[in-house]
Amino acid sequence: MPIRASYAAAVMPAPRSALTVEELPAPKLEAGGVLLDVTYSEVCGTDVHLHHGRLTGVPYPIIPGHVSVGVIAALPAPLNDIEGTPYREGDVVTFLDVHGSCGRCYHCLVTKQTTRCPSRKVYGISYGVRDGLSGGWAQAIWLKPGTHLVRLPPAVSPETFIGGGCGLVTAVHAIERGEVRVGMTVAVLGVGPVGQSAIALAALSGAIRVFAIGDPVSRLDFARRMGATDVIGLDVAPNERTEFVRRATGGHGVDVVVEAAGVPDAVPQALELVRDGGRVVIAGQYTDNGDARIHPHWQINRKHVEIRGCWGSDYSHVHRAVQIAARFGDRVPWSEMIGGRYSLADAGRALSAVERREVTKAVIVP
Ligand SMILES: [Zn+2]
Ligand SMILES: [Zn+2]
């Protein structure tokens, strides 16, 4: 593919300022890197947080877009996938948005919590315009040497993968942390992109009952299509939601709760819904939304509850998300989660559509 002299990108100059479209020069191609022609890049809840200035260490101006899918436009040197198969120009790929985990620090080596590595950088979040084409809301993104790519198998369309996108990758991690197994009962709090995919993965894991709790009604209807057996709106009072779930589970509560709501009050609610000795995964509190009031005796100690955090993702979650989308994309309507497609010039509109929850998922089509 011919390399152009420059590529258009949607730039977020600073928090709360309007997005602009700028032409950035083509990168200097280095061995080990990949120039990717972007097919789709996701507009994620995190991008709304970026626009509100709620994440620390963001080097504005930035090109947002951390989860993207595209076509390899240039490969300056041979590069293989994890199976040893060479990548070629024209291959459809996605990639782990985290780059530069050091493999040398306490988190990388001792506790193996690579998402806590202080050296990690994220395309579209902690790389900015001064790093060049470093976000997905652009005609091309330069993936630096050491970026972990994942090839999309022919069975998965770019639409299906990006429809799941960041939420699917996060949900793979959350369901893994929840250790959801066949025969279990699960409640998912929140019916945004993470919640919807968590519902689908819980159902695919063999959960016999999956309760979806959230709003609006349109998203609850969609949750049923993703695999929820029961849906409860937020117009139902919290104690009545608990009552409903308890009654439906023989008075016990569910085995696993996945919190994907993002509001702090969802955490005490999760502790009410879980059965004694059950597990709660906190996946929705990605930014600081404040604190919540919990009762340690009744809600944790006496109940023998296990609480697990779930922050960020590693390569395994992206890899599995791609394989899951390829295997189950014909029965889980991930591609239909895309409620709007926007050009680079309309990236600001895409952001406000996600912020106002007019669409579950918006994608940028550069
Ligand atoms: Zn490290
Ligand atoms: Zn995201």
Shape: globular
Structural class: alpha/beta
Evaluate the radius of gyration.
20 Å
> Which range does the strand content fall in?
15-25%
The portion of residues assigned to helices is 25-40%
Number of DSSP-assigned strands: 17
Q: What features would you highlight for this structure?
A:
single chain; 366 residues; alpha/beta; 7-stranded mixed beta sheet; 6-stranded parallel beta sheet; 10 helices; 17 strands; 28% helix; binds zinc ion
What does this structure look like?
This protein is an alpha/beta fold and about 375 residues long. Helices cover about 30% and strands about 25% of the residues. The protein contains 10 helices and 17 strands. The strands form 4 sheets. Strands 3, 4, 5, 8, 9, 16 and 17 form a 7-stranded mixed β-sheet that branches. A 6-stranded parallel β-sheet has the order 12-11-10-13-14-15, sandwiched between helices. It has a two-stranded antiparallel sheet with strand order 1-2. Helix 7 links the parallel strand 13 (about 255-260) and strand 14 (about 275-280). Helix 3 (about 160-180) crosses helix 4. It is globular. The two termini are about 15 Å apart. The model has no long low-confidence stretch (mean pLDDT about 95). Bound molecules: zinc ion (2 copies).
Architecture blueprint of SSEs:
Elements: E1 6-11, E2 20-25, E3 34-43, H1 45-51, E4 68-74, E5 92-95, E6 98-99, H2 106-109, E7 121-122, E8 140-143, E9 149-151, H3 158-178, E10 185-189, H4 193-204, E11 209-214, H5 217-226, E12 230-233, H6 238-248, E13 254-259, H7 266-273, E14 274-282, H8 296-301, E15 306-309, H9 315-328, E16 338-342, H10 347-355, E17 361-364
Parallel strand pairs: 10-11, 10-13, 11-12, 13-14, 14-15, 16-17
Antiparallel strand pairs: 1-2, 3-4, 3-8, 3-17, 4-5, 5-9, 6-7
The structure holds zinc ion (2 copies).
Residues 101-102, 104-105, 107-108, 117, 119 line the site of one zinc ion (ZN).
